[in-house]
Every structure is written in structure tokens, then in C-alpha cells.
Amino acid sequence: GFWGLVNNAGISTFGETGWLSMETYEKFADVNLLGSIRTTLAFLPLLRKYKGRIVFMSSIIAYFTLGNGIYSMTKAAIEKFCDALRLEMKKFGVQVCIIQPGNYARSTKIQPPVSAEEIWNELSEEEKAVYNKEYVQERANFFNSILSEGSTNGNEVVDAMVDALTSPAPKARYMVAKLKEKALVFVCALFPTVVMDSVLSYALSK
């Protein structure tokens, strides 16, 4: 029979909302969101027949964003798709699990270091009139520092995926992240938005 499907494909990039083209938004939605949906729909008849498992790769970035809102957008959307699918599949004995990794950029190489010069050269004239090179460089440095802090223990995420596929009682969500990353998610989920905005704004200002 057909037992498990893991939707793992994903791409990432850096940039504030107005810096990215509509074509970029469409590409990210197509790969990170619609790609997983297309694959799921294709295999759904077999998964229902054999009471299998469906695993989706999300991210703690689904809860907040620090310079990669386009990636956060797709991960938040896939979370809601999974929530609906998980409830619908219960009656068929199909279990749906979400993996929520923290920063594993150094393990996955999903996001290479960003170049402020390349970002600036790709900005529209309208955006260049609003921002300056120094601001773009500061943001690029900040984002690159986050990437450099990424964990190299990618096996932790793989272990969560294996457990989701093989455990007799898999979790609906596997958050595989550092303590400070989990704390940030906790603040985001339980505190008013104004508190989270203050925390993230402070981080960005540094």
C-alpha cells in the first residue's frame, strides 16, 4: 500500500514587502503552498485507502517574521491548510502532522547569505526613493547574522519527520527549535499583537 507523504519542498528569500515583485510572490506561493496542495490532492485517494500519514514542512516563521515575510506568508497558509485537512482526514484514519523547525539555515542551505548590493540593484526607482543603500545594508547584515546562527543539527528535523511517519500516536505538530525560538512563538501566540510588534521592532532596531 501507500503509507506516507512528506511535503518538504520549499524556497526562501529576503526582502521587505515592497522590494519583491508580484512574480516573486506568485513563485513562492506556487512552490511553498500550492506545490504541497497539488501533491497532497494527487495522493489523497491512496492515503485514504491505506489510512496513511501526511507530513508537511512548516516553520516557526509561520508565527512571526524578521525580514522574510514572503516565506512566513506561505508557511502560515500551509498551517491553515493542514488544520483543515487534519480534521477532515480523521474519519478516514489518515493522520496529518506538521513539522515546525526553527533556524536550520546552516543545515538546509535553503537561504544563502544575502547581498545588499544585489538587493539595491533590483529595487524599483520608487523603492530607491524611499530607502537608501545604508538601510538595505543594515537589513542585509541583520538577516545574515540570523542565518549564521542557524543550527547544523539537521538530523533533529529528520528525526521528527520519521516519528511523524512511524509513531503509533504521532503529534499534530512537532516544534523542533531552540528554547529562545520556542519562547518567541509562545509570546506571539499568547500575548497581544502590540507586545509582539514591540519585541520584533526592538530586535530589528538592533
Would you mind describing this structure in some detail?
The chain crosses the membrane at residues 54-71, 183-204. Belongs to the short-chain dehydrogenases/reductases (SDR) family. This is BDH protein. This protein has helices at 22-49, 69-89, 105-108, 116-122, 125-130, 133-148, 155-166, 179-190, 193-205, and strands spanning 4-7, 53-57, 95-101, 173-176. By secondary structure, the chain is of the alpha/beta class. It has one domain: NAD(P)-binding Rossmann-like Domain (Rossmann fold, 3-Layer(aba) Sandwich). Strands 1-2-3-4 form a 4-stranded parallel β-sheet, with helices on both faces. Strand 2, helix 2 and strand 3 form a beta-alpha-beta unit.
CATH architecture: 3-Layer(aba) Sandwich
Task: Quote the CATH topology.
Answer: Rossmann fold
Largest sheet: 4 strands, parallel
Task: State the fourth-level CATH superfamily.
Answer: NAD(P)-binding Rossmann-like Domain
Classified by CATH, the class is: Alpha Beta
Tally of domains: 1
How many angstroms separate the termini? 53 Å
Output mean pLDDT: 93
Class by alpha and beta content: alpha/beta
> What best-fitting shape do the alpha-carbon axes yield?
globular
